[in-house]
Every structure is written in C-alpha cells, then in structure tokens.
Amino acid sequence: MGWFIDFLTSSIGKKLVMSLTGLFLISFLAIHLLGNIQLLFNDGGESFNVYAHFMTSNPLIKFVSIGLYAGILLHAIQGIFIAIQNKKAKGRKYEVSTLKNGNWASKNMALLGILIFAFLCIHMGDFWWKMKFTDSVEMITYDGYDYAVKDLYSKVYYSFSQMWIVIVYLIGLLALAMHLYHGFQSAFTTLGLVHKKYTPIIKAMGIAYSILIPIGFAIIPLYVVVKNLSNY
Amino acid sequence: MELKLKIWRQKNQKDSGHFESYKVEAEEHMSFLEMLDVLNQQLIEQKKEPVAFDHDCREGICGSCSLVINGRPHGPQAGTTTCQLHMRAYKSGDTITIEPFRASSFPVIKDLVVDRSSFDNIIQSGGYISVNTGQAPDGNAIPIEKDLSSEAFDSATCIGCGACVAACPNGSAMLFTSAKINHLQKMPQGKVEHKNRVKNMIKQMDKEGFGQCSNVGACEVECPKEISTKNIANLNRFYLGTVFGGE
Ligand code: HEM
Ligand code: SF4
Ligand code: FES
Question: Given Cys at both, which of A98, A107, B118, B133 links B71, Cβ 3.0 to 4.6 Å?
C-alpha cells in the first residue's frame, strides 16, 4: 500500500488523478449532451422527462452518478491543490513577462476550473437540487405510462426564460470550452500517450470536442430564448 | 550603440532585492555577456559593486549562463544561450530588463546568480550509469540503431541550464529531468538501471520542490537546445510503467 500512497503523492501521480477524472468528466459530458438534446423535441417534454425519470431512478445509473460527483470533487480539489503548489514553486513573478509561451488556457486551468465549478453550483442548485429535494418541479403523467414523472422539461424552459440564467450558462460554457481546449490533449500527454501518428488525431479531436460540445449545450438555452421571442 | 539596462540587484539570499537602471555603450558585435562585462568595468571604475552573473564556456555548451532578458530566458533568439546572443539583436536606445531565473527551487544567491544545486541533486539521484569504466571500449563494439542513437543524442544535448524551469509558470523541472531519463533509457548501458532511475529522479525532483507539469509547453520554446516536450510525455509513461508494471 505504501507504494500506492507514494505514487498518488508524487507529481506525476497527482497529475494522473487530474487526467483520469478529467477524461471521465469528458465522457460524461458527451452523454449528458446526447440526453439533453431531447429538450429540443416539441413533444411536451415526454421523451426528456421519461429519460430524466429513468436516469434518476435506475440503480446502476444512481451508482455511476455517485462516482461522477466524487470525480468532480476529486478533480476540483486536487486541481486547486496543484495550482496552489505550482504557484509556490514558481515564487516571484517576472517584471517583464511574455505572453507567447504556451496558450492562455493552459496557464489558467485553475481559474477556468473555478468558473466551471461556480457554474456547476448554480446549475445543480437550479435543476438537480430543486428536482430531488423540493416540490417545485410539478409531476406529470403521459399517455401510455402507468407512473407519473417530474416535469423537468417545463422547469428547464422556465429557467431559460430568465435572461440572467442564460448568460450564466453562456459564461460557464465558454470557460468549459477553454478548459477543455487545453485539458483534452493534456490529459493524454499526462498518461504518456504520445505517438507520431496518433497525437495529431488526439489534438484535432480535442479541439473539435472543446468547441462542439459547449456549442451543443449552448444551443439549448439559446433555442428557448429564440422560441420565447418568436412567441411575442 | 547606447542601451538602457534595468537590472535586478540583490546583495544576498536574504536581501529583498530591487531593480536598478544603468546606461551602457556597446558594440553590436559584442555578445550579451560582453556587454555586461563592459558595464561591470564601468561600475568597477566608479568603485561600485559589479553585477554578478553566471558564465563559464561562453560558447553555449556548459549551461552556466542564465538570465531572463525582457521576459525570456536566454533572450529573444530561439535555440541559443545567453552567451550566444549578440547585441546586433538590439537597436541603439533600447531598454533591456535583465532578471534572474525565477523559481523557488532556484534561490537567488546574488544579483542575477541563482543556486541550481537542485538540478545537481536530481542528477545525483540517478542521472548516471554505474559501470566501472575500465579501458575505453572499441567504437561500434555495441551496435545501436541510428534512429535510436539520434533520439538519445537529441535528449543528451540538454546542458542543464534550467531555462525550462525559469520559463515554466509552475516552476516545473520536467523537461530537464525527462531529457536526462530519455537519453539514458535509449542506450543499452542506460537501460539496466532505468526503473530505479525513473523512480529516484522523480522522487528527488519532487523533494526539491519543483512544480507539476501542466503541459503548457513554455519550456520547449525557451530551451536553448530545443529539447522536445515529447520527453515529458515519455517520462509520464515510463513512470506509470515503473509503478504499475511487473517486477
Ligand atoms: C466538468 C468539468 C471539467 C472537465 C471535463 C475537466 C477536464 C480536465 C482535463 C481533461 C484536464 C487535464 C488533465 C491533465 O492535464 O492531465 C483538466 C485539468 C485541470 N482541471 Fe479540469 N475539468 C473540469 C472541471 C474542473 C473544475 C470544476 C476544476 C476546479 C475547480 C478544474 C480544475 C482543473 C485544473 C486546475 C487542471 C489543471 C491541472 C494541471 O494541469 O496540472 N477542472 N481538467
Ligand atoms: S531541457 Fe533545455 S532549458 Fe532545460 S536544462 Fe536542459 S537545456 Fe536547459
Ligand atoms: S556560458 Fe556556457 S553556455 Fe553560456
């Protein structure tokens, strides 16, 4: 066991935790977006609400989601610790500094991470908390189902009718895009996965992912905004 | 050419230090260090303390010279050390800010001189091959594939100057440490002690208080020997292999 503790507290071990939790979050985000696309369906929320009900009641998914919460916390806490340690290791800053060495995101991962975390608190507080622990989300029964489900669909549409929430989402997603623009390929480098043939592919995938996934998420609140505007 | 210099002055490790401005008359064929020699001669004649800076070979091979010049370790040129930088890179009237390498593991001893013993400690923890050197072996007695020897040589060109640490926003020594480990790992003589070398050098690197690598890539840009960050990625893999691999 001693060897494992030694590993986890080594510089590379700490980075491995960041990388693995980061990649786990990356795969979660893709699935999360795929499910949320159902918010764009014009079916009174049937497919989305039934899906949301399944996601919150299936024991296997409940188990995975505990791993997800733990993963986010581990990633965030470890990330902050690493950033503090790195700042200490650098010590005094230069009087003159050059901006050309390395992209901005790579040097501000912790700042971007804190923005993402702040966003997550607002996001989870508005949907997850209200759905799980309050009665503010109405129940609804669709034809052909013998059980009622929570109408999270309407709740989402209600939230996105408030402009400040839409703006918070757009800022959060921009931070996410920048975090992943560096993070995606960095996670592979941390794992030691570099290869003449495959690294360019990984880098291209990282750029595509970091742009397309946040845009995908942004479409949902923007769709609601446009829909509301066209109703007037 | 006339230059304005803004130089970091610090009496000793405990002194808090400050910038001081100087004027110096230089020729464009002078090297950067020769320009500082001229300044020091001036200071000595004025009975002032000369500026302390590190140097030895003055031909880009020893790794002693350091300096962060206008925010860039070893100055604005790619792939050269401070001693290989010439004043023709500047125009008359330019202001040049000169600072020491900054990293907590490289404490300033005096003015522009930093203590890089932490690098020596990393090398002593495993950056060597323990063979008894008897007589020199015949050339080509051990066959090594050309590509491999070229790669090993690319890593071996690291002169241990520490510009990578100076450039890194995290003060990480991963480029240096990985260059040394990659160099020896590729050679049959070095392979023997590879696993212990990886373990011990990383352990020492962490003990010296260097930061973690965030894959920023600033080190590679500033390295006078253009050591590639691929060395770092390889080291990550070596380390995971050493920790999780079979005995
Ligand atoms: C859902 C959101 C997130 C995803 C998908 C994500 C993903 C990643 C990835 C892939 C890396 C690269 C790991 C490496 O360099 O090996 C990374 C690094 C990092 N993340 Fe996140 N992250 C997320 C949220 C956060 C949050 C909430 C924080 C902090 C509050 C955070 C802080 C950091 C920091 C500081 C690093 C840099 C670590 C380093 O390079 O040394 N991340 N993230
Ligand atoms: S890797 Fe480059 S910058 Fe770092 S010590 Fe070696 S030669 Fe200097
Ligand atoms: S003085 Fe030797 S490398 Fe510059």
Answer: A98
